[in-house]
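User: I've been trying to design a sequence by hand for this structure and keep getting stuck. Would you show me what you'd pick, starting by listing the structure so we're on the same page?

Assistant: Good idea, let's start from the same input. This is the structure you sent:
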C-alpha cells in the first residue's frame, strides 16, 4: 500500500494574535506541524505533502529539513480546496491520508487503525464523541447507524446540532475516488467554502461505505486555535511524557512540574527528579541519578550515580559516573567531566575536560581547559582564556593543587602535582612537583595610624 499524506497547514490562525504562522507555534519546543510530520513520517511507503498558504515561505524555510512536498494554496477557500491543490500528485492506487497541521497530539496507532479501514469499498473517517461538539462538523447517520454525511455546524439544523459525534477532519480515502469527488465539490454553503467533508455524501452515493474509528482519548484530536488551547495541549503532552517516564522507573516529585522538550535517548532506573526540572534536546540519564529542583539540562549525557543539586544549568555536557554537581553550577557546551568529579556552587565550566576525582568546589571559571585527575582547584580560580580576540587553553596536570583566588593566564600549563600559592597570577608554566606563587611580599607598617573622624560640635 502506497500512502500519500496531505497535511493541511495553510490557515492563518488569526486567533493566535501572532506574527508567527499558527503551525510554527510550539508544543514541547517543537512546531505543531513538525509533530504531525514526525508522527506521519513513521508510516512506511509514505509521501508527505504539506499544504501551505499563509506565510508559506517562512514556514518552508523554518521547516526546510522536512522530507515533504510543499504545496501552495494561495487563497484559503476551504479544506476541500486545500486538498484539491494536491490532486496532481495523487495516484489512483494511493491511499490518501488527510491530517491537520494544527492537531499535534494525534497518535500513530490511531492513524494505523484508520488506514486499516480504507479500501476501494470503504472510506475511513476519524470521529470523536464530545460532550460539547460546538464548532465541529457533525456526523449524520441513518437508521442503520451508517454514516450518510457530515454537516458543518454553520449549515446544521437544530436537530443536527444535537449530534454529539464530531468530525475530527482526519480521514483516509482511495486516491482515484478522492480525485473524482474533489472535482465535484461546490461552495454553495453557509461559508461559501469548498468543504472536504462533502466527499462523504458523494462516497455514500457511489456505494462506498464510511467506516469510522475513534481516538483513544479526545485529547488526540484537539486542535490549536488560540494560546489557551496551546497551553492546554502542552500540559496534556507533558503529562503523557511524565507518565511514561514514571512507568519506566523514574520518580518525579511532581509530574505537573516537570518538562521534557526533546527526547530521552537512554534512561536508567531509580532516577529521582525534583520539581521544576526542564530537560531539553537529547538527554541520556544513567541509573541512580538524582536531579535537584530548578535545574535545566540540555543535550547532555549523565552517568550512573550522578547527583545534580538545585539550580544548575547544564548544556552539551557529559558527566561521568558518581560526579556531584551544584548547587548553582553552570556547565556550558563541550564540557566533559570524568567519573567522581565535584563541581560546586557558582562554578562555570566551558569547553573543558576535567579528569577523574578532580574538584572545583567554589566560585570558579574554567574555560578552554584540560584538567587532569585528582586536581583540586581552590575557590575563586579563574582561567583567563581570552585576550579580547583569541582564546587560549589552560592545562592543569594530574594531582595539581591550585590555591584560592588564582588567575591562570592562558596559554599556560600547571605541571603534575604542582602547587600554586593562593592569590597568584600565573603567566608562565608552573613546573611539576613545585610550589609556584606570584605574590608581593606581605608587609606590616607599625607606625601607621588609622585616620580619626573629627567630632563636630
Ligand atoms: C473542519 C471540518 C469540520 C471539523 C473540524 C475539526 C471542513 C469543511 N470542516 O472545520 O467538519 O469538525 O475541521 O477541527 O473540513 N485549511 C487549509 N486551507 C483552507 C482551509 C483550512 O489548509 O483553505 C487547514 C487549516 O489550516 C487547518 C485545517 O485545514 O489546519 C482545518 O481548517 P479549519 O478552518 O480549522 O476547519 P474548520 O472550519 O474548523
Ligand atoms: Ca479548526
Amino acid at each position: 500500500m502506497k500512502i500519500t499524506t496531505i497535511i493541511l497547514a495553510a490557515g492563518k490562525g488569526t486567533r493566535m494574535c501572532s506574527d508567527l504562522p499558527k503551525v510554527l507555534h510550539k508544543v514541547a519546543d517543537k512546531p505543531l506541524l513538525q509533530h504531525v510530520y514526525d508522527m506521519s513520517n513513521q508510516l512506511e511507503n509514505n509521501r508527505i505533502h504539506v499544504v501551505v498558504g499563509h506565510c508559506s515561505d517562512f514556514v518552508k524555510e523554518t521547516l526546510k529539513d522536512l522530507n515533504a512536498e510543499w504545496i501552495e494554496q494561495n487563497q484559503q477557500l476551504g479544506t476541500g480546496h486545500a486538498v484539491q491543490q494536491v490532486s496532481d500528485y495523487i495516484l489512483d492506487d494511493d491511499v490518501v491520508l488527510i491530517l491537520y497541521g494544527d492537531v499535534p497530539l494525534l497518535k500513530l496507532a490511531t492513524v494505523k487503525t484508520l488506514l486499516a479501514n480504507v479500501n476501494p469499498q470503504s472510506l475511513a473517517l476519524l470521529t470523536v464523541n464530545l460532550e460539547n461538539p460546538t464548532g465541529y462538523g457533525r456526523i449524520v447517520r441513518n437508521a442503520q447507524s451508517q454514516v450518510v454525511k457530515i454537516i458543518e455546524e454553520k449549515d446544521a439544523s437544530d436537530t443536527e446540532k444535537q449530534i454529539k459525534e464530531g468530525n475530527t477532519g482526519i480521514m483516509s480515502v482511495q486516491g482515484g475516488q478522492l480525485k473524482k469527488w474533489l472535482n465535484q465539490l461546490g461552495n454553495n454553503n453557509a461559508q461559501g467554502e469548498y468543504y472536504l467533508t462533502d466527499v462523504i455524501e458523494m462516497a455514500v452515493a457511489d456505494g462506498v461505505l464510511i467506516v469510522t474509528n475513534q481516538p483513544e482519548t479526545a485529547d488526540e484530536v484537539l486542535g490549536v486555535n488560540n494560546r489557551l488551547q496551546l497551553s492546554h495541549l502542552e500540559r496534556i503532552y507533558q503529562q503523557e511524557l511524565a507518565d511514561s517516564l514514571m512507568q519506566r522507573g523514574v520518580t518525579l516529585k511532581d509530574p505537573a512540574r516537570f518538562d521534557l522538550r526533546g527526547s530521552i535517548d537512554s534512561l536508567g532506573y531509580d532516577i529521582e527528579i525534583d520539581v521544576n526540572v526542564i530537560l531539553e534536546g537529547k538527554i541520556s540519564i544513567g541509573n541512580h541519578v538524582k536531579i535537584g529542583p530548578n535545574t535545566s539540562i540540555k543535550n547532555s549525557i549523565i552517568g550512573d550515580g550522578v547527583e545534580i543539586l538545585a539550580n544548575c544549568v547544564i548544556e552539551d555536557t557529559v558527566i561521568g559516573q558518581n560526579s556531584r554537581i551544584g548547587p548553582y553550577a553552570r556547565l556550558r557546551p563541550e564540557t566533559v567531566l570524568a567519573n567522581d568529579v565535584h563541581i560546586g556552587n557558582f562554578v562555570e565550566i566551558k569547553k573543558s575536560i576535567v579528569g577523574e576525582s578532580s574538584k572545583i568546589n567554589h566560585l570558579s571559571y574554567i574555560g578552554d581547559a584540560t584538567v587532569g585527575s585528582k586536581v583540586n582547584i581552590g575557590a575563586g580560580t579563574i582561567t583567563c582564556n581570552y585576550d579580547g580576540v583569541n582564546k587560549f587553553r589552560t592545562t592543569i596536570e594530574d594531582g595539581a593543587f591550585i590555591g584560592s583566588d588564582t588567575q591562570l593566564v592562558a596559554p599556560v600549563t600547571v605541571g603534575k602535582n604542582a602547587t600554586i600559592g593562593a592569590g597568584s597570577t600565573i603567566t608562565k608554566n608552573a613546573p611539576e612537583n613545585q610550589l609556584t606563587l606570584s605574590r608581593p611580599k606581605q608587609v606590616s607598617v607599625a607606625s601607621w595610624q588609622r585616620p580619626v573622624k573629627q567630632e563636630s560640635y
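That's my pick for every position. To get oriented when you compare it with your attempt: The mean pLDDT is 97. The CA atoms of residues 264 and 283 lie 5 Å apart.
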